[in-house]
Design goal:
Blueprint lengths: L5 H8 L30 E6 L8 E8 L5 E7 L4 H14 L5
Antiparallel strand pairs: 1-2, 2-3
């Protein structure tokens, strides 16, 4: 009867392929707070005023800066993301359509 040392059993279990490290992709999310085109502080919030339930009708969206008080209300569709509303807001501000 041959005795098997405890070190020998561990080496038998560990034989085989090396375990590969899992590399998970980093999923980037859209921002919730944006920088203000007037004061440059990242304090712009976008809130949807949902008065209707259907997806085809437009809703009112409010863009407000918590630092300088710049605000704008615009009609948008429910399919638009806050990033799209922010980009449209900055475009209108740079064109001079929104009060400075």
């Amino acid at each position: 009867m041959a005795l098997i040392s405890p070190h020998a059993t561990n080496s038998l279990i560990d034989m085989g392929r090396r375990h590969r490290r899992l590399i998970r992709p980093i999923r980037k999310t859209l921002p919730k707070v944006f920088s203000c085109p007037r004061c440059g502080v990242p304090s712009i919030r976008i809130s949807n005023n949902d008065n209707t339930k259907s997806e085809t009708e437009s809703t009112s969206t409010t863009v407000v800066c918590g630092s300088c008080g710049l605000n704008h209300e615009a009609p948008t569709s429910l399919k638009q993301e806050p990033v799209d509303v922010y980009n449209h807001f900055v475009d209108e501000y740079m064109a001079g359509k929104i009060g400075a």
